[in-house]
Design brief:
alpha/beta, TIM Barrel, EC 2.8.1.6, 11-stranded mixed β-sheet, binds iron/sulfur cluster, biotin synthase
Length: 343
Amino acid sequence: MDFVELIAEVSEPSPPKEAALELLQRSREPALALQLFAAASRIRDESIGKTLWWSAGISSMMPCHVEPLCTYCTYFTAKSFPLDELVASVKAIDELGIRHLHLSGGTDFAGYDNEMSDAVHAIREVSKIDIEINLGPSFTRNGVRRLKQLGVSSITSSLETFNPQVFAKAKPGDSLEKRKALIETCQDEGMPVRSMILVGLGESEADRIDHLYWLMQFPHLYHLRFSRFMPYAGTDWENHPRCSPWEVARLVAVARLLMPHVDLGLAAGNSADDIPLWYAAGGGNQLLGASVSMRQGKSRKTQPGETLIPVTDRVALVSRMEHIEQFVRGLGRQIAAAVPHSY
Ligand code: SF4
């Protein structure tokens, strides 16, 4: 089939999975990828608009209790983020003009219902910021209900990879089924859902398409983020290949055709340097402008484009807003402080 016709077929509602896979595979050829990216960008502009917007992240919120820990991970923590330092961090994010925040990490199958309800209560004392929560499959149905009643904007359940063998190798103490079940629970409870794909763990292109098709069944899925595998020294995966940005960009473009109204973001393993290709491939529209972690104290060395803002004796906020704004201006686009109404 002609490539333009294939793009048109996959852009129709409920396209055959085989067509989406063929589109992804044939887009390895750069000249064809450019056609796909143009279609995906047009769909993005028409579906969710041309204005990008800020979010911020606070990570390492809770101890990770999966046993054994994921074999690629270096960012788990053994301690909870103290509430007073959490509140101070949220105030610092507010002062940057960011109106949207996600709290993330780690996982406990026994549940973090109470801990995260307490965290949301504490934040609500000082801020109206929109809150998203990502602590893996750490919430019961009642926990989802409580967080919804507290006005939490969404819960994230990242499947990371849809291939059960790859999942078992990368996350031997974790549960793909529990992660899927949390998305199903959120859908039942009318709680908006966010999810993530970790590209480059060794999954096939067919696995990636299966992953997208499984997620497409959930009308409450409103944000899907794409991590790009980074091998870290000292992990079992230190010799596994770094994922190419080309793999992520092509998958984002196919995802845009399949789920035009879903925000498609960049997650771990990507940097500001990935923004132009991501955006050209139909990604959008949320940007991570600032982040806080107990693991990035005041002594953390900044990278080019980062500003370190001390929050407490132990915690610092890292802002990348100016740097990212410059990149986005170069794309002829603007970034708004406001969160889109659809959120
Ligand atoms: S569940 Fe998340 S934080 Fe815990 S070990 Fe795995 S990747 Fe790391």
